[in-house]
Amino acid sequence: GTDEQEAAFYAIVDSDGRIEPRDAMPEAYRKTLIRQMAQHAHSEIIGMQPEGNWISRAPSLRRKAILLAKVQDEAGHGLYLYAAAETLGVSRDHLLELLHTHQQKYSSIFNYPTLTWADVGAIGWLVDGAAITNQVPLTRCSYGPYARAMVRICKEESFHQRQGFEALLTLTRGSARQKAMAQDALDRWWYPSLAMFGPPDRESTHSDQSMRWGIKRFGNDELRQRFVDMTAPQADVLGLTIPDPDLRWNDERGHYDFTQPDFDELFRVISGDGPCNRQRMEHRVAAHTEGAWVREAAAAYAAKRAKRAEA
Ligand code: ACO
């Protein structure tokens, strides 16, 4: 772009305005957005798998209906995000191709297994809770289509978070075995949830630049702290113990002190070596291949309707 275009871009970003698809933007800004939005979209659709695992085994018809709706919401989030990414000049087919060939990532969290029904509650409470903490600031992202997609996604995530909390509350008020199941789920999901926020700021590749561009509004560490501050009192309400002996309120800081997650584990999981990476990708590619006829039928139907509208 020209110097003039660059000045116009920074004038919008610096005055907290929104960059729209037709505005000139630095190539690196466009690339960063495609990376983050695609990774986010991929996370939504891969995220259907761990919970989808429990749809056929939900403990009641009511729980099953809620879980079905929730998993469908995740598919919808993926669709909004792919559509928003397409405004940057990339196609959904291409982004899926990059996912399937390991050239783009999805969130580390979805590489952990869902071993019991309590895991469905823990995912809602912790994983969706972390997602909201990270995504509410993204409603103010400098790129208009991403920011607007986030508004609706956050409303739905907040319902997801409450349903997870409520499902766990039911278990913790149940039998000793049910309570133990809830505690076990918290023990396994706590640190992976903290790791969702990404590496510490000092090891984060993109944070400084993304914050300068108004894509990210806060660093990874600040959002992780916010999540702990929000979640610790909720664990008390549930009567569950967060698996961190050093977790305690620090009056001076006005925050909870806590133990950081194992970032070596995060990097291992990101690079493909988590408990379920292979299974998740195999399932995704198989679903895509087996779903080809649905895409073909939908395209044929759309073409037929367009022809009829023409006549
Ligand atoms: N899982 C997978 N990859 C991650 C994770 C994670 N939890 N955290 C960081 N990374 C990757 C980054 O993509 C980046 O990869 P690259 O260097 O190959 O490009 C690398 O680790 C270094 O991290 P950062 O420089 O800090 O990356 P970034 O500035 O993109 O921050 C973050 C990471 C916070 C996840 C950001 O991308 C973001 O806010 N994304 C949107 C939210 C999102 O994707 N949520 C998905 C899960 S929530 C849900 O779907 C329910």
TrEMBL record:
It comes from the Bacteria. It comes from Jiangella asiatica. The lineage of its organism: Bacteria, Bacillati, Actinomycetota, Actinomycetes, Jiangellales. GO terms for biological process: phenylacetate catabolic process. GO terms for cellular component: cytosol. One of its GO terms (molecular function) is phenylacetyl-CoA 1,2-epoxidase activity. InterPro entries: Aromatic_CoA_ox/epox, Ferritin-like, Ferritin-like_SF, PaaA, PaaA_PaaC. This is 1,2-phenylacetyl-CoA epoxidase subunit A.
